[in-house]
Amino acid sequence: MRASHIGVIGLQETHLRDEHVQSIKQLHERQFTLFNSCDPDSPGASAGVAFALNRSLVRTDECALHVLVPGRAAILTMTWHHNLRLTILNVYAPNDPGPQATFWTQVLDAWRLSGLPAPDFFMGDHNIVDNANDRAPPRAEDATALEAFRTLCLALNVQDAWRSSYPDARQFTFRTLGRTPQTHSRLDRIYVAAPICTSTYEWKVSPSPFRSDHLLVSVRYAPPTAPELGSGRWTLPLRLNTDKVFLDHVTKTGLALEEDLLRLPALREGDRNPQLLWQRFK
């Protein structure tokens, strides 16, 4: 998170008990804050979703976790760029198609009852794909589960922004290990609220920093109200600080500039003024 300047990471299948969370917070409280929702029936053995927040980039004291489905779906609300509010939904869907349809309906019902705004980002391990290009070899998804998933996305008004930008591309985030034939799929995705899709950029799929059969999906977000940043201030290469030819030239022209400034009239005359002389010197 520090090296890549990541503000928020959504984690799935965390298997964290309360004592694990407390231990992590004590060890790393200066670096990041952790919000976790565990499986109430077997917290250390299955499911679990969490958010890790980089304290150097995020105002963690103004963040809150809202659990929709314990251990499976949770929403993080936070402040981003002064008074801008962000809402992020993180899910870890069941593997089996049967429970999936019920799960997506549960998430939708719980969100409606929560009174929370629609999420700006909807991320996680969905364990289902919505495009034939997202599996290799391709196979049909369970129709009931897929319909429930699409109903949720429609209600939340979120889009698969990466797929919209690359409609024919193939990029996988998960592969089966120890099986023949090996299969690949794009189970890990970040959906974006339709109004801010154009404010997302620099999509990446990279190796996970810890042992996992899933890859890390990331995207950067620049709110429309964020100040525009230029390319930075021009500076001299450090090596010129010890370059004798350069330093002699600066000294000679600097002394000439000083003499020209002293000879300037009290009132400006045309192009004879300190700012123009300084500009030419630079």
Give the SSE map:
Layout: E1 8-12, H1 18-28, E2 32-37, E3 49-54, E4 64-69, E5 73-80, E6 84-92, H2 97-114, E7 121-125, E8 135-136, H3 143-156, E9 158-159, H4 161-165, E10 174-175, E11 184-185, E12 188-193, E13 200-206, E14 216-221, H5 244-262, H6 274-281
Parallel strand pairs: 6-7
Antiparallel strand pairs: 1-3, 2-3, 4-5, 5-6, 7-12, 8-11, 9-12, 10-11, 13-14
Helix pairs in contact: 2-3, 5-6
Question: How confident overall, as mean pLDDT?
Answer: 91
The helical percent reads 25-40%
Please, how many helices? 6
Count every beta strand, where a strand is a DSSP E run of 2 or more residues.
14
Strand order of the largest sheet: 4-5-6-7-12-9
**What does the main sheet amount to?**
6 strands, mixed
Organism: Auriscalpium vulgare
Protein name: DNase I-like protein
Describe this structure as you would to a colleague.
With 282 residues, the protein is an alpha+beta fold. 27% of the residues lie in helices and 26% in strands. The strands form 4 sheets. A 6-stranded mixed beta sheet has the order 4-5-6-7-12-9. Strands 1-3-2 form a 3-stranded antiparallel beta sheet. Strand 5 (73-80) and strand 6 form a beta hairpin. The relative contact order is 0.09. This is DNase I-like protein.
At a glance:
The protein has 282 residues and is α+β, with helices and mostly antiparallel strands. The protein has six helices and 14 strands.
